[in-house]
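With this grant's support, we have settled on a layout for protein records. An illustrative entry appears below exactly as we store it:
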Amino acid sequence: MMKKLLLALCLAIPNLASCQTETKMDENAKKPAAMPEVPEGHEVVTLGAGCFWCAEAAYDQIEGVHAAVSGYMGGETKDPTYEDITTGTTGHAEVVRVVFDPKKIPLERVLAWFWDLHDPTQLNRQGNDIGTQYRSAIFYENDEQKKVAEASKKAAQENFDNPIVTEITKAPVFYPAENYHQGYYFANKSKNGYCKYVVEPKLKKLKLDH
C-alpha cells in the first residue's frame, strides 16, 4: 500500500525528484526481464518477503548468490504486470527468484537471511505494504527443499513471539517482473522515498547497504 501510494504520487507530480524512474520509462523498461540463468551445480528457490525491491537488493549482495530476480508467483493470472499485481486480485506474491551455489551458501543459509529480512509473522503485509501480494512465502523446487524449508521455519519460530505465517508451497510458474524493477534499489536509492525510508533501513540492519 505504501509503495503503491508513492508511485501514484510520482505520476501526479511528474517533476518530483524521487519519481524520475517512474515517469521517464522507455518501452524496454516496461518489458518483463529475462529468466535468470541457472549455471550447472546451482539451485533455485523463490522467496516472498514483502516488497521485492528489498529482498532483491539484499540477496544481490550475498556471497554465493549468482542471481536475484524480482518477479511474481503463486497466482492465477497468466503473464501478470505490475499494475495487475498492485490490485491484489491476481493471487500472485511479489517474489525474488534466488539462484545460488549450494557449495558456497547452502539453502539453510539462504533461508536464514530470509527470516532476518522481513517479519514472517505479519499476514499478507509488511509494515504499511498491505495485501496478499506482500505475503511471506517460500516456493520450493523439490522435496528436499521442502524439508529444509519446513525445518528452517520451525527453527526460526524460536526468534519470534507471534506465530510465523509463511506459506511453504511447491513452486508454480515464475513470471519475471518488468525490467525497471530489476536492481531498483541501487538505481533509485538517492531519488526514491520508498528506497530511502523502507529499503535502506532493512539493508543497514543486515549490514548490506553498499
Observations:
- The longest strand covers residues 65-73.
- The first helix runs from residue 2 to 12.
- The CA atoms of residues 120 and 164 lie 5 Å apart.
- Residues 8-23 have pLDDT under 50 and may be disordered.
